[in-house]
Amino acid sequence: MAKILAVDDSASMRGMVAFTLRGAGHDVSEAENGQLALDAARGGSFDLVLADVNMPVMDGISMVRELRTMPAYKGVPILMLTTESHTDKKMEGKAAGATGWLVKPFDPEQLLATVKRVLG
Amino acid sequence: MSKTGLAQFQQVFIEESLEGLDTMESSLLALDNGGDAELVHTIFRAAHSIKGGAATFGFPEMSSFTHEAESLLDEVRGGKRAIDGAIIELLLRTVDCLRAMFARAQAGEPLNDAVAEALRNELAAAMGRGAPVAGVQARREVDQADAWTVRFRPHAGMLAGGNEPLRLIRELAGLGELTVKTELDRLPATLAALEPTECHLGWTIELKGPARRADIAAVFDWVEDECDLAIEAKHIVAEVASPVATPATPAAPAANVADAGAVRAQREASAESSSVRVSIDKIDGLINLVGELVITQSMLDTFRGGEVDASRLAMLEHGLAQLARHTRELQESVMGIRMLPIASVFNRFPRMVRDISQKLGKQVKLDLVGEQTELDKTVLEKIGDPMVHLVRNAIDHGLETPEKRRAAGKQDTGTLTLAASHRGGSIVVEVSDDGAGLNRDAIVSKAVQRGLIASAEGMSDEAVAELIFQPGFSTAAVTTDLSGRGVGMDVVRRNVSDLGGTVTIRSTQGKGSVFTITLPLTLAIIDGLTAAVGEERYIVPLVSIVESVQLKADAVRSVAGGGELFRFRGEYLPVIRLHDAFGCDTAVQAIDEGLMVVVEGDGARMGLFVDGLIGQQQAVVKSLEANYRRVQGISGATILADGSVALIVDIAGLVRLQGRRKAA
Amino acid sequence: MGGRTKGKGEARVIALPADFRLASTADVKASLADALGASAAELDGAAVERVDSAALQLLLVFRREAAARGLALAWSGVSVAMREAADVLGLSQVLELPASMPA
């Protein structure tokens, strides 16, 4: 069981991610945008952060950049949930400090496989 | 994950996508009016979310469709393409098309249709390429060997980014047997020189076992830019011309097909208008009130059974007063749950105004005022149509073309204002324009031609303006396809009056017109006067009462055909004796012993003859139809303080009833 | 949560933390740097539950510098998690992990 933070402005996507991960026994917190995610991250130590790229208030890329300045989040896996089929978004996320990405659409099995992969 | 698990989010996805489309539309319109670049981001985000969710939640058609729009937006966002009217137009049509697709999704119909297909090609063409070619075969790696050497040297920053060599090498171990050799040449000689969060190690890994190059590369897919990687085949099995393994087809579509049934059942279960979204604040307010009610009740409970000591009388009175206050507040709060902001109705107008004004070659600026004004949900659902008609009418007949405006010394762009506000116990919605105003001569000549009046001699401007609410009235020289749809102002007035409201017009020639719709705060509670008729009690809605007068016996005259008239402020008004209309015995018959209540409904006035008025009160409307059956001239019933039932008089209905009698 | 050090004659014992990963390396590095001044040191990895390559890399640099300075170095405990990670990364030998040791 890991502590996971799911960040997405879309309630359906966030809900699906949280539902799936909770079903696998993880302890999942949810945040609606990057700013709220940073607040949550300061309050608790997460083993993994899953974040959408495009969000209002603070987007996922800025959020990753901020998270990586926090000593407690150096080295913590952060995956971007992205639909971008071009590589530029993935690379922008990586440059900001993301660990990797999960390309939408993904189904619950793919999500679990990726989470398992990154948590080792 | 269970199917119902996924389905519950499918419904949420549809709802949030429809909201997203509203956002896209309003932002596109704002952009069209010279909005800032942030709007492009907002639009992009909305399109992006729909695209991502659509594929995940089982609507691949919508996903690929939105993808085209998103690519276009991405170029705009990246400054590679300037946004112009044509692109906005195209994207607005995309919004429409997606709405239609969601509607089909809700109905469980196939999502694509010819319109979607054509629009998709248009979007693709706008991107400077043809329709996407289906089934392009990806070039496959045929590289396969049963022994590999992998050289992996992470860049210094890889660890901080969360990619752990431990994980990567363990994953690689899933492909075959590993021999791992660590390269320490980059390792600093002293602790002082070591930045411990940076990676200074490297690995050469021998992998034994049949594996494809692509499988090995996939292990390192997240770090390809964060390391130096070399994958060398040591022992090549064979060069295979045909693809060895079929590329993994995404499992998602199959799963989605299986889920479609569950989703559909879910959708059908959620009836659209039978639910209402309530803000947490309102619910918290209710919970608070209920809490106070419980406290008051337990306080009052202490008086149960025993005799009330005189010294505690004050406390009892206090408790009862508190109970009354809480009940009233609770009533208001519960009614408040039905109240929703008018913004949802207002929001459909920017698009409509844009389309109509473009079609008519007019320039119109739309101002929305008081979007947060709350209306009863039922009123909200029904006020749209009358407003649409008033807005069409204002642009079509009220506002002038830029040339005419210039000639009249006005700005080229006309202003159309939709304003909502609370006034007293009512909601007032105004549709105003700074156009030409009503043309008295045109109205009069039309009314004469239609036989509505013989001449306008002595008619006030107000009375002339009222003529446009007569059935079948139209002043446009040429009936346009916009407002000439067989719907006249009479229908607007009818619709509004069905909601218990009124519509009036104020107009100044050359300056513009204001249509004012006045609506009750809620349909579920009305303010009324209780009237006595024999043993019965009737509620007359306060909004329709002009005044009540005591008449002398000779003030009412019988006319041929059985009707009665009385003179009120220079007009002769028909009399309806409520005891006749509803068959009450023992009621007052003599005019000078009863009371004449002058009421107005559907633009006509008349006198209701009753025994007397008992008082003013708020009545909670109960449907007569639901509990008994529909009765002409009665809009509902309510329960009085003494437990008896009083019927609520439907003034507009009585006016229509009266008109039919007159015609008969 | 840095590694605790305590004097044991001249031999310094450095207890490695349960969560011995990237975020803790700065603290452990300070303890190790401190121990470089002693004549002998013991590394106690018995409590280590989670470990990563940054942590093992740190130990590696420490061992190399300690050897260069002639510091007597020994393991007083190695957890299963630590041994397993060192094996995967091909570092067991260079870290001179004892062949077998109760965790």
From TrEMBL, chain A:
Modified residue annotations for 4-aspartylphosphate? 52
- Where does the Response regulatory domain lie? 3-119
In terms of InterPro entries, this protein maps to: Bact_response_regulator, CheY-like_superfamily, Sig_transdc_resp-reg_receiver
PROSITE patterns on file: RESPONSE_REGULATORY
Q: Which UniProt keywords apply?
A: Phosphoprotein
Question: What CDD domains is this protein classified in?
Answer: REC_CheY4-like
Q: Name one GO biological process term.
A: phosphorelay signal transduction system
State the PANTHER family in the record: CHEMOTAXIS TWO-COMPONENT RESPONSE REGULATOR, STRESS RESPONSE REGULATOR PROTEIN 1
Q: What is this protein called?
A: Response regulator
What's the source species' lineage?
Answer: Bacteria, Pseudomonadati, Pseudomonadota, Gammaproteobacteria, Lysobacterales
Automatic annotation (TrEMBL), chain B:
Positions of post-translational Phosphohistidine modification: 48
Query: Which keywords fit this entry according to its UniProt record?
Result: ATP-binding, Chemotaxis, Kinase, Nucleotide-binding, Phosphoprotein, Transferase, Two-component regulatory system
Q: Could you tell me which residue ranges the CheW-like domain spans?
A: 525-660
EC class: transferase
Key word Lyase present in the record? no
GO cellular component entries: cytoplasm
- Which Gene Ontology BP terms does the record give? chemotaxis
**Listed GO molecular functions?**
ATP binding; phosphorelay sensor kinase activity
All copies of the HPt domain together span 2-105
Main role? Involved in the transmission of sensory signals from the chemoreceptors to the flagellar motors. CheA is autophosphorylated; it can transfer its phosphate group to either CheB or CheY.
Which PANTHER family does the entry mention?
Answer: CHEMOTAXIS PROTEIN CHEA (PTHR43395:SF10), SENSOR HISTIDINE KINASE CHEA (PTHR43395)
Which InterPro entries does UniProt cross-reference here? Bact_Chemotaxis_CheA, CheA-like_dim, CheA-like_homodim_sf, CheW-like_dom_sf, CheW-lke_dom, HATPase_C_sf, HATPase_dom, His_kinase_dom
User: Which positions fall inside the Histidine kinase domain?
Assistant: 271-523
**Protein name per the record:** Chemotaxis protein CheA
Record EC number = 2.7.13.3
State whether keyword Electron transport applies.
Answer: no
Reaction catalyzed: ATP + protein L-histidine = ADP + protein N-phospho-L-histidine
Name one matching Pfam family. Answer: H-kinase_dim
The organism encoding this protein is Dyella solisilvae
From TrEMBL, chain C:
Please report the stretch or stretches of sequence annotated as the STAS domain: 13-103
SUPFAM superfamilies, A to Z: SpoIIaa-like
Going by the entry's taxonomy, the superkingdom of the source organism is recorded as Bacteria
One Pfam family hit: STAS_2
Q: Which InterPro entries match?
A: MlaB-like_STAS, MlaB_ABC_Transporter, STAS_dom, STAS_dom_sf
* Name of the protein in its database record: Anti-sigma factor antagonist
Per the UniProt record, the source organism is Dyella solisilvae
The organism that produces this protein has a lineage beginning with:
Bacteria, Pseudomonadati, Pseudomonadota, Gammaproteobacteria, Lysobacterales
